[in-house]
Design a protein that fits this description.
By secondary structure, this protein is mostly helical. Helix content is 79%, strand content 0%. The longest helix has 41 residues, at 217-257. The chain is globular, with a radius of gyration of 21 Å.
Length: 448
Amino acid sequence: MTRTIHFSGAFMQSFTSVGPMLDVAALFSAIAVYSGRYLGIVMLAAFGITFTTIYVVSSLASKYENNGGYFFFAGKVLGKFSGVSVAVIYLLYSILVIPNISIFVSFFSLAFIDMPVSTIPYWLYLFPIVFIIVITGIISFGLTRSIRYTVAAGSVELLFMVVLNFLFLIHTHGHVIIAVPSSMGDLGSVFTGVIFGVLAFAGSGSSIFISENTLNGHRTVPKGISFAFVVTGIILVSTAFIMFSFLGPTGFSTYTKNPSYVGSAIHVAFGSVVYYAYGAVAILSAINLSVAYGNALFSAVRKMIADHIVPLSQYSKTTKTLSFIALEIAIAEISVYLLGSLYAFLLLAGIVSLAYMVVHVIAASTLIRLKSGKKEITKLILAAISATVLIITFSFSIFYDLTGGFIDTLTATAFLVIVFISFATVLLLRNNRTNWYRKITFDENSTA
């Protein structure tokens, strides 16, 4: 396999998979709804908590250089059944990511486009189609070229966030305001926000899926993951505190009720150029995230084919690409038709979030199993902390969803159905398609 990716590619693959500017434009508003003025504390706590998760991924990546990522780790250490189950779960939730982002961008972009009300419904259906085709087109140029795009576009995103923070700083209400919880009720709201804060860092380990294409991957990929996590954490935490100071207590209170208020405040404080740049870079972040996630997914699927998990080797690249486009468009269009853009976005995001936590609990269990009996206490402790925190967060999320409103209940139910289908499929195929199951390998050097 050709190794054309350097540290910059591994770094930006993980950095853009987080979508930091998209987090600021979208996820911060969700955190603000639950945690209010404690946005900065929430992001700081989430940064600390997710350190253990990233440590687990980085440790596994330094041990195994394989594009299979999570499913390879599980299969190699925990056994074939675990590996195949994780592969199916990963496949089922990963195909939701790009449609989900396309749906969000379709209604986010309306704030920056002067469009007649009568044409908005058409836009909400048409935009995801164009978005998915463009993203797949970039990915189809090949990993080497699409990583070059990721490095260039990710650098623009990183630079703009630094500039935006600088502008916020020179327009703060006197100083950077740090709100600290002072009651049990406030602590509860912080914990609820941390659930979303942890998810803001989802994607930090994305470069594990291109480790076989990376020069000296077992060293470069863990380094890229670690540096991307630190840089992203510093930017997101500082932005959370500085944004609160920029808006001020009154403005931030308005923000918790109206997510678009940040854009309005930017427009008033800095003018149209910065306002439209803010919207453009947020959309660029969505594109960057989608390309990086698509590259990870395509690499993982190629590894699934090579390991005989997914029987698609007889189909041409064109057929597989067109089938992928059709599937992604169908998911986006059907979701919008049945639920509307906002609820479709919340549903798909919720499913992806819950699945992400499950996969990372299994990854932490993999590292625990790998290091059991060895004198590496630090890795065992951090892996145990990661698993414990994720299990608590997952349990809280499931309980909240199942006892919440319609869309929350639908999210939890859909996720549980996906998990059931994953395990049931593997069990049925293992028992009835023994030839298929016997061929499955977790070869460290397999290629497709």
